[in-house]
Specification:
heterodimer; A: 6-stranded mixed sheet; 5-stranded antiparallel sheet; B: 7-stranded mixed sheet; 11 strands; 0% helix
Chain lengths: 111, 116
């Protein structure tokens, strides 16, 4: 059973569209939650942390549902530069600072 | 902000040779560093945790004698892929957390290894 699952996509959306990504995790002892962005052949970069109360950073909104072990990312007003792979990342309480990555969801924003 | 460097960024080698990859924290000390591997269209998978002053901790299924890790100082960890084979071809990425927070974790730019 995969520990962090995401729909791989790809999601092809026009500029200006709103797009949502979902993620589920299997370990109920998970402690910290993140969305990372990875561009082709590059290292992942932190997009935002995800808190139980939900949090927003500009056009990006993240939600966490601990009871359902579900995380989401909403991107509003998509830009061409948002095209990337979005990685759902979870930290287990017993793994120190090591991170567990989903396979990622590919987003392509088109003109 | 803090930066983690990796060297080399890309390496091509013949099967059977050993390859050393360096991971450096440039403006902070890292008692712990992590080594991940990413195959095409796959997620980053944790290989091992590198600990300064002690042995590395390897994840299940990762051969410690094949992937040698040395955390030589508070700013340097090395991963040596010994007797590399084509199936070891992958993208290797290190990361180093600021010890006070998982949220502040810095990734190196990665090393792309191709074994012929």
């Amino acid at each position: 059973r995969k520990e962090v699952e995401q729909d791989p996509g790809p999601f092809n959306v026009p500029e200006g569209a709103t797009v949502a990504f979902n993620c589920t995790y299997s370990n109920s002892a998970s402690q910290s939650f993140f969305w990372y962005r990875q561009d082709c052949r590059k290292e992942p970069k932190l997009l935002m942390s995800v808190y139980s109360s939900g949090n927003e950073d500009g056009r990006f909104t993240a939600q966490l549902n601990r009871a359902s072990q579900y995380i989401s990312l909403l991107i509003r007003d998509s830009k061409l530069s948002d095209s990337a792979t979005y990685l759902c990342v979870v930290n287990w309480a017993y793994s120190g600072y090591a991170l567990n990555f989903g396979k990622g969801t590919s987003l392509l924003v088109t003109p | 902000g803090a930066v983690v460097s990796q060297h080399p960024s890309r390496v091509i080698c013949k099967s059977g040779t050993s390859v050393k990859i360096e991971c450096r924290s440039l403006d902070f000390q890292a008692t712990t560093m992590f080594w991940y591997r990413q195959f095409p269209k796959q997620s980053l998978m944790l290989m091992a945790t590198s600990n300064e002053g002690s042995k590395a901790t390897y994840e299940q299924g990762v051969e410690k004698d094949k992937f040698l890790i040395n955390h030589a100082s508070l700013t340097l960890s090395t991963l040596t892929v010994t007797s590399a084979h084509p199936e070891d071809s992958s993208f290797y990425i290190c990361s180093a957390p600021l010890t006070t927070s998982t949220e502040t974790q810095y990734f190196g730019p990665g090393t792309r290894l191709l074994v012929l």
